């Protein structure tokens, strides 16, 4: 049972360990350096530690820049203005408004007005605003540095391995979606379940795109940036193809289902088999050949719809969804082959991580 729990929550356990190590390290370092309010180091370390190196670096940059700018402006304002209630209120309002305006649309400066406000309030009835500002900067920068170092050292992230794992998870979900398509019941109940599954896949794809974006910020990870972005784009295309197949099936009239339905279902199930192999990390050569063979049979059947009496059984209204279904399936099989290639490239990059 313990092994099962560890396998299911390995990423969560590793993240918890990083946060724990970062907070403890920040506390010890701040204490040894005799920083007056070392809890700012601990808080900063807790905030900047993310599940990925790139995310941690980005969070550390935002917190460091925002703190430095806020401390400089707030410290200068606190040093220059007279120590009185009215003067502090006016300076606080003006400083926070100025920094909030500067931070609008600039994530790097998001913490600047907060830092300035804390400094002005903390030094409202005392002198030494510049000293307090310098101490806050030192405490925050120490926490940021420890957070980044902890992320790099404790359970170091493997960008391409993590990305490939997320991609395989999405592929597995799309496979399940496709496998149920031929027999899915039409109507509100089936549509509700379908939309829920599609939303879940969309959320996972958004998380995967965040992983790709974070990887760009990680030290030494830019070399494979285009390949990672290509993997995300390919997965989106596969997802869109699966949605297009569902829509084409829903729009297909009964005559289309009678004429090419079984062949189309065979292509869909072959594509699902291919996605399952992709999700399991297996070679997909056999499944790819099978999908392409079934697609060729479907193309051949559609090409002969005009022969003999079949042309009388299908009109323009039925032909449009039929061709739409064939087009969606052709795109799906092609993008699945591309997905397999992109994951193969990710595996090669893992070897040099």
For the biggest sheet, the summary is: none
Percent strand: under 5%
Distance between the termini: 31 Å
Question: Mean pLDDT across all residues, rounded?
Answer: 82
Q: Indicate the multimeric state.
A: single chain
**Using DSSP, what is the number of strands?**
0
Unreliable segments of 5+ consecutive residues? 1-7
Shape descriptor: elongated
What structural class do the secondary elements suggest? mainly alpha
What Rg is obtained from the alpha carbons, in whole angstroms?
Answer: 29 Å
Order of helices and strands: HHHHHHHHHHHHHH
Descriptive keywords:
about 350 residues; elongated; 14 helices; about 0% strand; mainly alpha
């Amino acid at each position: 049972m313990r092994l099962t729990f560890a396998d299911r929550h390995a990423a969560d356990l590793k993240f918890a360990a990083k946060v724990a190590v970062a907070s403890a390290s920040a506390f010890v370092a701040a204490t040894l350096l005799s920083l007056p309010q070392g809890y700012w180091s601990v808080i900063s370390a807790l905030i900047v530690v993310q599940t990925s190196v790139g995310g941690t670096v980005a969070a550390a940059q935002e917190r460091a820049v925002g703190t430095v700018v806020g401390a400089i402006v707030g410290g200068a304002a606190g040093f220059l203005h007279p120590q009185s209630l009215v003067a502090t209120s006016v300076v606080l309002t003006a400083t926070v408004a100025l920094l909030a305006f500067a931070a609008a649309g600039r994530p790097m400066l998001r913490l600047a007005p907060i830092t300035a406000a804390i400094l002005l309030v903390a030094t409202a009835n005392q002198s030494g605003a510049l000293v307090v500002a310098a101490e806050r900067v030192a405490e925050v920068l120490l926490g940021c540095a420890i957070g980044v170092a902890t992320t790099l050292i404790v359970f170091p992230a493997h960008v391409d391995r993590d990305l490939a794992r997320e991609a395989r998870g999405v592929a597995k979900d799309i496979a399940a979606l496709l496998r149920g398509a031929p027999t899915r019941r039409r109507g509100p109940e089936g549509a509700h379940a379908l939309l829920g599954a599609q939303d879940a896949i969309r959320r996972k794809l958004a998380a995967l795109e965040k992983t790709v974006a974070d990887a760009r910020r990680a030290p030494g990870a830019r070399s494979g940036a285009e390949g990672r972005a290509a993997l995300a784009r390919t997965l989106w295309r596969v997802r869109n193809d699966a949605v297009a197949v569902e829509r084409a099936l829903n729009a297909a009239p009964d005559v289309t289902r009678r004429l090419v339905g079984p062949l189309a279902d065979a292509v869909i199930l072959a594509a699902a088999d291919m996605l399952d192999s992709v999700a399991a990390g297996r070679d997909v050569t056999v499944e790819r050949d099978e999908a392409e063979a079934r697609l060729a049979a479907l193309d051949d059947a559609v090409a002969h719809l005009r022969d003999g009496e079949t042309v009388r059984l299908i009109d323009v209204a039925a032909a449009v969804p039929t061709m739409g279904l064939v087009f969606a399936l052709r795109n799906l099989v092609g993008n699945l082959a591309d997905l397999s290639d992109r994951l193969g490239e990710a595996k090669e990059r893992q070897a040099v991580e």
